[in-house]
Design a protein that fits this description.
Largest sheet: 5 strands, antiparallel
Number of helices: 10
Strand order of the largest sheet: 2-1-5-4-3
Low-confidence stretches: none
Order of helices and strands: HHEEHEEEHHHEHEEHEEHEEH
Shape: rod-shaped
CATH architecture of the largest domain: 2-Layer Sandwich
Number of strands: 12
Radius of gyration: 50 Å
Structural class: alpha+beta
CATH superfamily of the largest domain: Histidine kinase-like ATPase, C-terminal domain
CATH class of the largest domain: Alpha Beta
Distance between the termini: 57 Å
Mean pLDDT: 81
Strand content: 15-25%
Helix content: 55-70%
Number of domains: 3
């Protein structure tokens, strides 16, 4: 496969060749016309000069032979033509040429710029001489002389074009090399990402769009590394969370089978086995839900929902736990705020966050709603001990849980639902002393209309 640098050089050289060719052909076609026009102008100036000299020096009463001698001394190809009599009075060219021009009516036809005789062409210029008698001085220049000038000019121009093209190609080589080198280095870094050598990735010095691509690749590598680390941690944590109840179930099952336990212990063992099976079932169901939330957009059915309705459902479902924990659950009753969400999924997210707050609160959990010009916020905060600093950056990761947590999947599910709903969830320190979860949605134009 041809390297990009060579492809760019070939493309540039081809484009340059086309431009120079078109320019050369255009100049070649124009230069002869310009030379002819310039030669006609020079012939006209020479003719006018001769006419003035003849007028001042000779009179028509003098011998025509003396006038002929003067003109022949000028070493010019010219004719002295009598319009009235339509005949050549004087010529510095051969009779054969004169007869050839006469047969083509070149003398009488004053509109022809080029005269032809045999294989030769001539540029002509006509100057009226001795107007009462209708005499004209006609000067000629062979076109071959102009074509030689044209050829010499084209050769010089070709040399200039050739030197310019060589310089341009050399500059193109170095410029494309400067352009392609960062891409080649970036390719090597992508190979490291492919081989998962994230610690060996190096930054590339570049400018413009290549720098933006380099930054995107570097950010992608960091995100991929974080994702792989989180996946690794997920599998480690998942295996641990699944292994614990399985070992408990296995231990009691083998004890009951081998009649190690008495009847009372067997009954207790069966109860523990049922509890662990339910816990295991809950973990698996939440893992399946997380996988669906991450991979299937179709599980979200968005509609405009009154936020207070969702909050009231959360309060109703957590009422037994609130009474058990003997805490106060306070919430804002604002009926004018709507969100475009999947009501069932968002209820699950808000329920997980609220239950988390109830579990750690000492006496109070507050749910507040706030809205300004461009965003809606739902805040859930408690007066418990708060989130430990060591797990705060990872609180929404899978199987990350504090003291007294259950599966470690509840907040991960909440984050997945909120983000798929177009929102953002963060956690910080509450003025009540505990954790403060903030769910933020940007207000769209459609929300304003609703």
């Amino acid at each position: 496969m041809m390297k990009l640098q060579y492809q760019l050089n070939i493309a540039f050289s081809t484009l340059l060749l086309v431009i120079l060719t078109v320019t050369g052909i255009t100049i070649y076609s124009l230069i002869l016309n310009l030379l002819i026009q310039d030669e006609q102008r020079q012939l006209e100036q020479k003719g006018e000069l001769l006419v003035n000299m003849l007028t001042d020096t000779y009179s028509m009463r003098e011998n025509m032979q003396q006038l002929s001698g003067f003109l022949e001394e000028q070493d010019l190809q010219l004719f002295l033509y009598d319009r009235n009599q339509n005949k050549i009075i004087l010529s510095t060219m051969s009779n054969e040429v004169v007869e050839g021009f006469a047969q083509q009516n070149n003398f009488s036809n004053g509109s022809k710029d080029l005269w032809e005789f045999g294989n030769n062409k001539y540029v002509n210029s006509r100057i009226l001489f001795a107007s009462p008698r209708g005499l004209e001085l006609i000067l000629l220049t062979p076109l071959n002389d102009l074509q030689m000038v044209q050829g010499n000019f084209i050769v010089s121009l070709s040399i200039v074009f050739l030197v310019g093209a060589v310089v341009a190609v050399i500059l193109s080589y170095f410029l494309t090399r400067k352009l392609v080198t960062p891409l080649s280095r970036l390719k090597r870094q992508l190979k490291k990402i492919e081989n998962r050598q994230f610690d060996d990735i190096e930054r590339i010095k570049a400018t413009g769009e290549i720098k933006e691509v380099e930054q995107s690749v570097y950010d992608m590598a960091e995100e991929l590394q974080r994702y792989m680390n989180s996946q690794q941690a997920f599998f480690q944590n998942a295996s641990h969370e699944l292994k614990t109840p399985l070992m408990t179930i296995q231990g009691y099952a083998e004890g009951i089978r081998d009649h190690v336990f008495d009847e009372a212990d067997s009954e207790q063992g069966l109860e523990i086995m049922v509890t662990e099976v339910n816990r295991l079932k809950k973990i698996i169901n939440e893992m399946i839900l997380l996988a669906k939330l991450d991979s299937e957009q179709s599980v979200y059915r968005r509609e405009y929902v009154q936020v207070i309705k969702v909050i009231e459902q959360v309060v109703g479902r957590t009422l037994p736990l609130v009474n058990e924990q003997k805490i106060d659950l306070n919430y804002d009753q604002n009926p004018h705020i709507y969100l475009e969400i999947d009501e069932e999924k968002f209820l699950r997210a808000l329920l997980n966050i609220t239950i988390n707050g109830i579990r750690y609160a000492q006496s109070q959990v507050d749910i507040r709603i706030a809205q300004d010009d461009d965003r809606i916020q739902i805040v859930v905060e408690d007066d418990g001990p708060g989130v430990p600093e060591d797990i705060l950056p990872h609180i929404f990761h899978r199987f990350v849980k504090g003291k007294g947590g259950e599966t470690g999947l509840g907040l991960a599910i909440a984050r997945a639902i909120v983000e798929q709903s177009g929102g953002k969830i963060t956690v910080g320190k509450s003025q009540l002393g505990g954790a403060k979860f903030i769910i933020t949605f940007k207000i769209s134009h459609d929300m304003h209309q609703n």
